[in-house]
Design a protein that fits this description.
This protein is mainly alpha-helical and about 250 residues long. It contains nine helices and five strands. The chain has two domains: about 100 residues, DNA polymerase, domain 1, CATH 1.10.150; about 130 residues, Outer Surface Protein A, domain 3 (Alpha-Beta Complex). The longest helix is centred in the N-terminal third of the chain and has 22 residues. It is elongated, with a radius of gyration of 23 Å. It comes from Rheinheimera muenzenbergensis.
Length: about 250
């Protein structure tokens, strides 16, 4: 029990230096551990979210990371997982301060999504679908793609462009191409709706997608929706974002 108490005291002090030192451990040694752990976490988050980090001075950024380090129970030591934990912390537990950008949560999520797609391992091979097969194939979105929406143009944010308030919703399709580069496409609301339907119902045909789109957009006739959806899906098929449906990849274990 003594060891467990010492271990808990060690962890508590590492996360929050205002907590008492563990019994029997000198300050000089604890200072080394404090600096090592905190510096690693700060480096991981800064590397994952370089744009967000660039919007803070060094002191303010360290204070933000310290709040995360002290309060959030990370369950994984991996670089990518720590970045995701930080994004979750901002979305679930952190109260924006007057000096924080109003878009910090959205920007952090967008930067994490780019990192996730750049580093995620694909499970199984995906079968490409040719543009001319769109009308006759069962389809799905590539594993290496994400459909996102934010009320800020997060791809434009920098030290020189920082919107002061939310605006029109921006729809993004992020994907990793055959050269393993992460790209994004800004899409309109109708295209985002089409892709979301496909995301939620992998294995759909063009006709089935159009049928669902007709419910959402009753002012368009079937021929108009068919033509528009076909053109969009053909374009994304060329990019490798829309692929042939793989039943084994979408089955429950």
């Amino acid at each position: 029990m003594h060891f467990q108490q010492t271990q808990q005291a060690f962890i508590a002090h590492i996360k929050d230096p205002e907590q008492p030192l563990p019994a029997g451990i000198e300050e000089r040694r604890m200072a080394v551990y404090r600096e090592l752990f905190f510096s690693n976490v700060q480096s991981f988050v800064s590397t994952a979210l370089p744009v967000l980090q660039s919007l803070y001075d060094e002191t303010a950024w360290q204070q933000l990371i310290r709040k995360f380090f002290r309060a959030y129970p990370c369950s994984s030591p991996y670089f990518l997982h720590i970045a995701r934990h930080f994004v979750d912390f901002l979305q679930q537990d952190y109260q924006l301060q007057p000096h924080d950008p109003v878009f910090m949560r959205e920007l952090a999520h967008y930067e994490w999504a780019e990192l996730y797609l750049a580093t995620t391992l694909q499970t199984g091979e995906e079968t490409a679908v040719r543009a001319e097969q769109i009308g006759t194939s069962t389809l799905q979105l590539s594993q290496l793609s994400m459909l996102l929406a934010y009320p800020y143009a997060v791809h434009q944010i920098s030290t020189d462009y920082q919107p002061a308030q939310a605006g029109e919703m921006q729809y993004y399709l992020l994907y990793r191409n055959t050269a393993d580069d992460v790209k994004f496409v800004l899409v309109n609301q109708q295209t985002a709706a089409l892709l979301q339907i496909l995301q939620q119902a992998p294995g759909s045909t063009l006709a089935q997608l159009v049928q669902q789109m007709q419910i959402l957009m009753p002012t368009f006739n079937t021929a108009q929706l068919q033509q528009g959806a076909s053109s969009i899906l053909q374009d994304f098929a060329r990019k490798g974002v829309v692929v042939s449906f793989q039943a084994e990849q979408n089955s429950l274990p």
